[in-house]
Amino acid sequence: MKKLLILSLSLLLSGSFSFGQRSCGTTDHHEKLVKQNPQIQHNLDQINHFTEQYVKNGVKNKAVVTIPVVVHVVYSNSTQNVSTSQIQSQIAVLNEDFRKLNSDASSVPSTFASLAADCEINFCLASVDPNGNPTSGIVRKSTTTTLFTDDDRVKSNSTGGSTPWNTSEYLNLWVCNLGTGLLGYAQFPGGPAATDGVVINYTAFGTTGTAQSPFNLGRTTTHEVGHWLNIYHIGGDQYGGCGNDQVSDTPTQKGGSTSNGTGNGYGQNYGCPSHPLVRSGECSGTTAEMFMNYMDYTDDACMYMFTNGQKSRMQALFAAGGARASLLNSGGCGGGTSTPSYCAASSSNVSYEWISNVTLGSINNNSTANGGYSDYTNISTNLSAGSAYSISLTPTYSGSTYTEYFKVYIDYNDDKDFEDAGELVYSSAGTTTTVSGSFTVPSGTSTGAKRMRIIMKDGSISGPCISYTYGEVEDYTVNITAAAPTCNAPGSLSASSITHESAYLDWATVSGASSYTVQYKTSAASTWTSATTTASNYSLSGLSASTTYNWRVRTNCSSGNSSYVTGSNFTTSSAPVVCNAPSGLSTSAIGETTATLSWNAVSGANNYTVQIKTSSSSSWSSLSASSNSLNVTGLTAGTTYNWKVNTNCSSGSSASTTGSNFTTDTPAPVSNYCTASSSNVSYEWISNVTLGSINNNSTANGGYSDY
Predict the structure, then answer these.
(1) Residue 353, burial from CB neighbour count under 10 angstroms (0-12, 13-18, 19+)
(2) Distance separating alpha carbons of residues 174 and 161, to the nearest angstrom
(3) What is the pLDDT of residues 135-178, one digit of tens each?
C-alpha cells in the first residue's frame, strides 16, 4: 500500500496537517520490517497458517476478550498533548465498533447485514501497570521531535518517543504528530516485541479535541487496531484491486482509482460512496463493494462494520497457541477474561412428561422427573471419531400422553456452546413413545470429554439454550476417542516467500503423520526431486530464476503413506542483476611515459573506473574508461606502477580487480664528445668550411665553435 502524500510543501514544513483522504502506513511499515529481517514474514506466515486451521476447524472463543490499553501521548506542543477525555472517547469508540454497539451499525445495507459481526473484543484503559501499581493507563511524554514518521522512533525513549509497556500484556497505542499525510500505522502480529502496537496521528484520534473531520469519529484507530489483530485491507493491497484479504465473507473488490480521486488504486475506496457500489471493471462475482468495512479507506462516517470472517481471524489470535493469547492473562485491566460456560436450558413443569431413559453406547440411564433439568455429566460413554452410533430416547407421562419432540446436541469442538455446524446430531419427529436414531461422530473431532445435551419438549425446539414450560433437559458426557488410524493426505497446500532461487512450501498438519515427502521439479522436467521433512513445511533452495515449478507432498505414517497431493505451480522471480568485476587484466605497449591497460568486457557495464599509482605511493589516481581498455599517458620513465579496475553498472559497482605491476621503459643514455679547443686565435682561424650544402664563413670565435 502506498501512502498518499496529500500535503503542500508549506504544510509539510509547518507540521500542521489537514487530511482529505485516508492514508494507512501499516503495509509499508511491515515491508520495511521484513526487509530488515525476513524472519518477520515467516512469523506472520506461520500465524496465518495457524489462523487458517482455526477458521477451518470452526473453533470459537466464547468468552469476551478484554485488552488493556496504554496510551502514550508524545507531544512537542500543548496542542498535541491530547486530553484525557479525548483518549476516553477513543476507547469508547473501540468498544462500540468491536462489539457492534456503534450507533451506525444499523446503516449496514441488507446485502451485508447477516455478515456484520460482534467481534467480542473489549478494550480498557489499563488500571494496573507492569509493576502492579495503579495507573491511569496514560503516559505523557514531552519531546523535542516535532514530526514523527512510520520509522518507529516514537516507540522509544532514546529516539524522542515513549518506550512501550510489556507488549505481551498491553496494547500500546501512541498518539503523536505523524507527518507526510499519514493517519496511522500498526504492526502485524509476529513482529518485534519492542515495537509492537499502534501509532495514530493526534488529529485523527478520538472524537473530540484535536480530531479533524472527516477522520474525527475514532475509526482510524479502529482500522489500525484491526491490523494489529491481523486483519488486512479489504481490497487486498493489490495494484489495480481484486486482491485477497484472506477473509472469505468480504467481497473481492476493485476499489477506487487515483486517476479520478475515488480510491488509492490498490482496492480501497475514498470518501463516502453510495451502496451498491460497483466499479468499472469490477472483480468477478462481486455485485457490490463493502466500502463500509472498517478496513476500507472511506471516511470515518462511512465505515461501520467488521464481518464474521474478520472476527474469526481476530479470535484466532487468542486461541491456545495464538499469537496474542498472552493478553488473556494480563492483569492490566485489574482482572482476567471471564471463564466460558454453557448456556442454561430448562423446562418449568415436569408434572405431565419427562425423559425416562437415554441409551447411547454404555449409557443406559433411567430417570424420573427432576425439576426440568438434570445434570448427568457424571455419566459417560466412549465414542470413536469417524464412527456411527445409535441413540434411543424414551418419554414418560404421569397420565395422558402428549406428542414430544427431541433434539440431541454434542459440543464437538468443546467451545462451550452447541451452535457450530454439525453439533445438532439428532432431531426427531413428534412421538409419544421411544424414538431411535443414529449419527456419526466427525472424523476430525478432537479427543476428550464433550458435553451432550438432550432436550424433550411438547412442541418445536428452537435451539439448545431455551427455557420453556413442558418437557425436560438432560446433560451427559461423551468421551471422544481417536479414530482408527488412517494416513490422510495433506491439505491447504501453499507456496510463499518466493524469490529467484528459493520458495517456502507449507500445508496443514496431518494427525498421525511421522513425516512428509515433498517432490518438486521444473514444469519442463519429467523427473521429481524428493525430500523428507517432519514439519508441515519445507524450504526449497537452489532453484533456477524465472522458472515455473511443480510440487506435491504426501503424508508418511506408521500405518503407510497417503497419496500425493499437488500444490499450485509457482514461478521464481528473475535473477537480480549482478555487476561483475573485470577479469583478464593485462598491460601492453609500455613506453617511457605511456602504457595500454586492458581487461575482458563485462556484460551490463556502463563504464569502468581505473586506479593507478606508483608502487611507492599510497595514493591512487582515478581514470574513467568507456570501453575495456585505456591508454595511460604522462607516466614517469623507469617507474613501477600498480593498477586496478572496477565495473560500474546501473545496479551499482563491482569490487576492484588488481592487474599485474608494470614498469615504464628507461630512456636510452646520451653519449658526450671529448673537448677540443685552441687557446689563441689572435693570429689565425678557420674562415670557411665547404662540404656539400655546407658553405660556412666564420671569424675567430674563441678557439672552439659549435656549428
Answers:
(1) buried
(2) 9
(3) 999 999 999 999 999 999 999 999 999 999 999 999 999 999 99
Helix 84-98 and helix 219-228, axial crossing angle in degrees, nearest 10: 60
Unique residue bearing C-alpha cell 510489556: 166
How many Å apart are CA 175 and CA 300, to the nearest integer?
18
Cα separation of 434 and 640, whole Å? 112
- State the Cα–Cα distance between residues 363 and 79, nearest whole angstrom: 71
Cβ proximity of 609 and 630 under 8 Å: no
Cα dist from 12 to 144, 259, 705, whole Å: 17, 23, 87
Give the chain's mean pLDDT: 91
CB 608 within 8 A of CB 543: no
Report how far residue 49's alpha carbon sits from residue 54's, in angstroms, rounded to the nearest whole number: 9
Nearest CA to 396 out of 436, 359, 366 is that of 366
pLDDT band at 13 (very low <50, low <70, confident <90, very high): very low
How large is the angle between the packed helices 26-36 and 39-57, nearest 10 degrees? 120
Closest listed residue to residue 62, CA positions, set 247, 250, 311, 284? 311
Report the C-alpha gap between 29 and 14 in whole angstroms: 24
> Would you say 597 and 641 are in contact if contact means Cβ atoms under 8 Å apart?
no
Contact 438, 388 (CB under 8 A): yes
Rounded (to 5) percent helix, strand, coil in the chain:
15, 30, 55
Closest CA to 459 of 347, 327, 344, 312: 347
Contact 305, 116 (CB under 8 A): yes
CB of 117 closer than 8 Å to CB of 169: no
pLDDT tens-digit series, residues 629-668: 999 999 999 999 999 999 999 888 999 999 899 999 998 7
CB 192 within 8 A of CB 168: no
> What DSSP designation does 604 have?
T
For residue range 295-318, what is the model confidence (pLDDT) as tens digits?
999 999 999 999 999 999 999 999
What grid cell was written down for 181?
Answer: 499525510
The distance of Cα 671 from the centroid of its chain, to the nearest Å, equals: 84
Residue among 573, 515, 507, 532 nearest 46 (CA)? 507
Catalytic residues: 224
C-alpha cell belonging to residue 652: 551499482
Nine-digit cell at 482?
A: 481417536
Cα–Cα dist 124/322, whole Å: 21
Ranges assigned E (strand) in 287-446: 346-349, 353-360, 363-366, 373-384, 388-397, 405-410, 424-427, 435-440
| Mean local confidence (pLDDT), 400-427 | 92
Helices 39-57, 308-316: crossing angle, 10 deg rounding:
120
Report the distance separating Cα 420 and Cα 411, nearest Å. 8
Contacts 24+ apart (CB under 8 A), 410-413: 410/441, 410/450, 410/451, 410/452, 410/453, 410/478, 411/342, 411/450, 411/451, 411/452, 412/441, 412/442, 412/445, 412/450, 412/480, 413/57, 413/58, 413/59, 413/60, 413/445, 413/446
Strand partners, 652: 649
Q: Is the pLDDT of residue 353 over 90?
A: yes
Cell representation of residue 608: 569502468
User: Residues in the chain, how many?
Assistant: 707
